[in-house]
Amino acid sequence: MDKKQNLTLEDCLLILDHIQGLVVIDKKGRTQYLSPDMKERLKRFGAFSDDTDYIGTDIMSIHPMTKITSALKEDGDEEIVFYMASGLPNMARIKPLIRDGNLIGAIDYDLLTSQDWEGFIKSTEQASTGGGLNLQENLLALMNKSLEKKETRYNIDTIIGQSARMMELKQEIRRAAYSDSQVLIRGETGTGKELIANSIHHLSRRANGPLIEVNCAAIPESLIESELFGYEPGSFTGARKEGSKGFFEMADKGTLFLDEIDQLPYHAQPKLLRVLQEGEVDRIGGAKVSVDVRVIAATNKDLKAMVADRAFREDLYYRLNVIKIESPPLREHKEDIRLLVREHLERLNRQAGYKKELDETVFELFYAYSWPGNIRELFNLLERGFAMSVNNKITVKEFDELFLEIIKSSQSTEGKTLQAIRDEAEREAIKRTLAFFEGNKSKAAAQLGITRGNLYHKINKYGLE
Questions:
Q1: Domain count, the chain
Q2: Which InterPro entries does this UniProt record tie to the protein (predicted)?
């Protein structure tokens, strides 16, 4: 006979709190318990804010990527699952909870966490002969064949940002990945639409299938149909004698990313609509081929306005716009600039073998700018500043054009003479430069490209003292 247990409720909760990644649900899929580390993970994704918000909530509404509900099926059984976290594979166990022969819920908990992974790999490789096992690479390849093919250029962990807007975006990506519906990504140039598409694919059930990326603007209009839908042997002059698969057939069981979908010729749009509706492509030359493809489209244009102008089919627009994701411009999450700069500078330093860093005053410049080219423009400017700097400190001197652009953007010229515009522009440039360098006239003169004596003269001229 077992001795009587003396564990209190507090003891039991303490034990549960020490189980990594623990999720407990009832038989209806309602959340009953999350371990502290699991709560923190989901809070970062914006699933809930207060610790008690999740109690009784459908687990799929706060954690759409979980597989725990598989244990609630009639044939539900214990299983081991792999998933990705912070770019590393984790391993978890899912089990149904049975009491007196009846299903009352399910639990899900980590067997191997990201924090354990490196130590596990090192100890395993040390135990193998000469470390030749290379277990990490093999397991990653087993988990996701696209990794084995080195197609995973981007995933959700490469989306840099901790602002509220970027956390919201990551949550939208996870929800989109759980679905198999078409996705329309809209955002300005340079906001990372390709990165979002890759992240959705590699988090989805199609992650082991191909991801085919197509820029609609890069394909000549005369070739767009043959490239997308394929063709039969001898179907037109110059066709391969064996025929050719189109991008849809190449993406079978995977994802087709159509970037700049607004550039898709009007005559090709009905065929794309048919593929989305019927699940089959009409090859040029007559053959029909069934395909299982999820389409993710992206644009920097207003497709609804294009529909109104009859430049884009309305039925195709609604078929693509099932799940809509907005890729935010950098000006809407400037608080992420410091993190973006740090990550990109680390990459540049690794490539070049330097230890360069950005002078603190440059950040003030970056925060004042509107970034019409978004993150791509930020990275390009950083690379130029990195290349042009003469020592390990990248200063405002490397960003003269950006500095002048900020000053010019603040000017109004309406109703003024040319000389008045020049004087006002010069006065404002000197005023802002002095403020930027906190009154240091030597630095201000160097930035403006004039002598210190000339600067004093202009300060007196414009009454800036």
A1: 3
A2: AAA+_ATPase, AAA_lid_NorR, Homeodomain-like_sf, HTH_Fis, P-loop_NTPase, Sigma_54_int, Sigma_54_int_dom_ATP-bd_1, Sigma_54_int_dom_ATP-bd_2
What three-state secondary structure class fits 254?
A: strand
51 and 177 assigned to the same domain: no
Q: What is the CATH number of the domain that holds 446?
A: 1.10.8.60
Q: What are the C-alpha distances in Å from 34 to residues 19, 26, 61, 105?
A: 10, 13, 14, 14
CA dihedral sign of residues 365, 371, 373, 378: positive
What span, in angstroms and rounded, lies between the C-alpha atoms of 94 and 10?
Answer: 25
**Tokens 């354990």 -> residue:** 116
Among the candidates 115, 143, 178, a domain finishes at 115
Nearest alpha carbon to residue 244 among 254, 225, 230: 230
The candidate with the shortest Cα–Cα distance to 299, out of 132, 186, 376, 453, is 186
Domain finish residue from 98, 115, 132: 115
Handedness of CA 391, 394, 395, 400 (dihedral sign): positive
Which residues have C-beta within 8 Å of that of residue 240, sequence separation ≥ 6?
Answer: 233
User: What residues pair up with 323 in beta bridges, in sequence order?
Assistant: 183
Pairing, β 280-282 against β 288-290:
antiparallel
Low-confidence ranges of the chain (pLDDT < 50): 1, 129-132, 134-137, 139-151, 413, 418
Q: pTM to 2 decimals?
A: 0.61
